[in-house]
Design goal:
Elements lengths: L1 H47 L1
Length: about 50
Amino acid sequence: MANGKRMNAKQKAYAQKQERQGHNVIMWIIGILILLAICYAAWSVWLVS
C-alpha cells in the first residue's frame, strides 16, 4: 500500500512539472506571436509610406 501511495505522489509531482513546462511553452509561443505581429505591423507601415 505504501508503494502505491508513493507512486501516486510521484505521478502528481510529475504532472505538476509537466503542467508548469506546458505553461511556459504556451507563454513563449504567445510572446513570439505578439512579437511577429508587431514586426508585421511595422513592416506594413514602412511598406505603405
